[in-house]
Design brief:
The complex is a heterodimer of chains A (about 325) and B (about 290).
Chain A: H1 2-20, H2 22-25, H3 29-54, H4 61-75, H5 81-103, H6 108-116, H7 118-134, E1 139-140, H8 147-170, H9 172-182, H10 184-189, H11 194-220, E2 222-223, H12 225-228, H13 232-244, H14 251-269, H15 274-287, H16 292-312
Antiparallel strand pairs in A: 1-2
Chain B: H1 2-26, H2 35-53, H3 57-86, H4 90-116, E1 129-132, E2 135-138, H5 139-161, H6 163-173, H7 175-180, H8 185-208, H9 218-232, H10 237-257, H11 263-277
Classes of the chains: A mainly alpha (about 325), B mainly alpha (about 290).
Pfam families (chain B): BPD_transp_2 (PF02653)
InterPro entries (chain B): ABC_transp_permease, BCAA_transport_permease
Main location (chain B): membrane
Chain lengths: ~325, ~290
């Protein structure tokens, strides 16, 4: 048992190392695409940490991401990049704690509505304060980090997110979340503090999303509220994660890779049609892919295993 | 004073939009996030009728509101009823309907963007000053407000004075109990959803007479309407009307005294106060 876990870990480490070598082999278009995919893998997995077990559709991704971008834009001149990323995560955590404390005690609909306009709210507030207090809207982010560096940082972040997700799954919090996800009333009767568990998970998820934003900031070079707080990102993350399926930690991965490539192609050739694609994506998920692609895969595998087990039993 | 009156005039139109949404959410139990697209489509329809056909928007209401009724009814029967049938619990239906109506929101927004582009539209209708209590207001805003009041009153009378209206309110209170007294809940829900669409469409027609609109503004309006609905208490017609007036005044206050870029922040401020102190709505009793 321990041996097989050990072998699995080594295999995973090898896979990660292979990906880490990617920037040395390719550049230009494919590296940019790889960074995009890595970014959305990080965002969707972090999103699933919270929204997977709670079934609450969070649309706050763009707001946390923007907070991360601003953390880097403000701090990178004074502090080393990794410290700035951690600070970005901290800022995201504080923001998530505030939002969570206000909305997660109430029914789910309030939470969805609140997060729906959150990025737009952050954009208006940041614009207002920047113009009123600092006199200008934009900020320059000047670093010498290449796309390859960003890819490595993102890869490290993905590993951290996966390890955290795995640890949560084995902890009391993870167990509590599974009970809450199945039946909140039962969870409350068991003495699980439902609101507090949700808020903790939301904070973790928000911190990771903000860190991803902090990592990506050098790509923007010039940061202004309208580009940092882009609500379309929130919806893309929801679609990709649900398309992949949220029952397993690796579920979103299955959705991200194909959808990022499709979205990339569409925004290159038909930039006007991205909303139609998002709309069709949502409808596809609701009507055809209830549990995502990973759900279908699991079902196929599960029925295989089941028939084998039944076959073994005479 | 000017601010107060402008705010109330704006609130009248908000009230219609929110009334449509509260009917859809309170009775049919579907949080219709694509409601804003009904609004925008009605704006464009009124614009088309006025510029191409020379039809007065107030007469246009008679054409566009029934169209809104039919379109929303078709959406409910075709797309949302399967979700209602499939759902094993209220929570599941909520998640499904939120995702499905998000899909519709983006789909319709994308289609309207294709048809009309991203430009802003408006037309000149009754753009003459109207003097009232020392202030001067555009006549189109005043007309829109009174038309909204008439429509809202008609809705109120319908809900509280007729048999079908009573059935609609019964379903809003408790669908299971409504079934026990021989109300066809499925039909009433579909009817309320379609009626909500018609009310929102009327709100859109009135809005288009004084407001500059474009294809992608639906999401902002649905956001405001949602906050009004929550503030007024879900399914509560009177609460929604009063909450809409409060929001209209509040927005006008912030826009004219602090900064026009902060209207959403004002809306959110109001939302947060409501969430913290009265999550059951202004006039809602304590929930069990």
């Amino acid at each position: 048992m321990t041996r097989s876990v050990f072998i699995q870990l080594i295999l995973l480490a090898l896979v990660v190392l292979c990906f880490a070598a990617l920037p040395f082999m390719t550049e230009g278009f494919y590296l940019t695409l790889a960074v995009n995919i890595a970014l959305y893998v990080a965002l969707c997995t972090a999103w699933t940490l919270f929204s997977g077990p709670t079934h609450l559709v969070s649309l706050a991704t763009a707001a946390f991401f923007g907070v991360g971008i601003y953390a880097t834009a403000i701090g990178v001149e004074y502090l080393p990049f990794p410290v700035v990323i951690l600070l970005g995560g901290l800022a995201g955590a504080v923001f998530a704690a505030g939002v969570g404390a206000m909305t997660l005690r109430l029914s789910g609909v309030y939470f969805v509505i609140f997060t729906l306009g959150l990025a737009e709210l952050a954009r208006q507030l940041v614009t207002y304060f920047q113009t009123k207090i600092f006199g200008s809207i934009g900020l320059f982010v000047l670093t010498d980090h290449s796309e390859g560096d960003l890819f490595h940082y993102l890869l490290a972040l993905i590993v951290v997110i996966f390890v955290t997700g795995w640890l949560i799954g084995r902890s009391r919090l993870g167990f509590a979340m599974r009970v809450i996800g199945n039946d909140e009333l039962v969870a409350r009767h068991f003495g699980i503090e439902v609101a507090r568990s949700k808020i903790i998970l939301f904070v973790i998820s928000g911190a990771f999303i903000a860190m991803a934003g902090a990592i990506m900031a050098p790509r923007y070079a010039y940061v202004e509220p309208a580009s940092a707080f882009n609500s379309t990102m929130s919806f893309l993350v929801v679609i990709m994660a649900l398309l992949g399926g949220t029952r397993r930690l690796w579920g979103p991965l299955v959705g991200v890779v194909p959808f990022t490539i499709i979205a990339d192609l569409i925004s290159a050739y038909f930039p006007e049609h991205i909303n139609i694609i998002i709309g069709l994506g949502f409808l596809l998920i609701v009507y055809l892919l209830k549990d995502g692609v990973s759900g279908i895969l699991l079902k196929a595998l599960g029925s295989n295993r089941l028939t084998r087990a039944q076959g073994a039993k005479p | 004073m000017t601010i107060l009156v402008t705010g109330i005039l704006l609130g009248g139109t908000y009230a219609l939009i929110a009334l449509g949404l509260t009917l859809q959410y309170g009775v049919a139990r579907i949080m219709n996030l694509s409601n804003g697209e009904t609004l925008v489509a009605a704006c464009f329809a009124a614009w088309l009728l006025f510029t191409a056909g020379g039809i007065n928007p107030l007469w246009g209401l008679l054409i566009i509101a029934p169209l809104g009724f039919i379109a929303n009814g078709a959406i409910y029967l075709g797309l949302l009823r399967p979700l209602v049938r499939r759902a094993s619990s209220q929570g599941m239906l909520e998640v499904d309907s939120i995702l499905a109506t998000f899909g519709l929101l983006f789909l319709f927004q994308g289609l309207m963007h294709l048809a009309f582009g991203g430009a802003y539209f408006n037309y000149q209708f009754l753009a003459v000053p109207f003097d009232f209590l020392g202030g001067s207001y555009a006549l189109n805003r005043v007309t829109a407000f009174f038309a909204a009041v008439i429509i809202a009153l008609a809705l109120y009378l319908f809900l509280y004075r007729t048999r079908i209206g009573t059935a609609v309110r019964a379903v809003a209170v408790d669908p299971d109990a409504a079934r026990l007294v021989a109300i066809d809940v499925g039909r009433i829900a579909a009817f309320a959803f379609a009626l909500g669409g018609a009310i929102t469409a009327s709100g859109g027609v009135l809005l288009s007479t004084f407001y500059t609109f474009n294809a992608s503004m639906g999401a902002v309006f649905v956001m405001k309407a949602l906050i009004i609905v929550i503030m007024g208490g879900v399914g509560d017609v009177r609460g929604a009307a009063i909450a809409a007036l409060i929001l209209g005044v509040m927005e006008t206050l912030v826009a004219s005294l602090i900064d026009p870029g902060l209207t959403l922040a004002a809306t959110y401020g109001l939302f947060i106060v409501i969430l913290l102190f009265r999550p059951q709505g202004l006039f809602g009793g304590a929930k069990g």
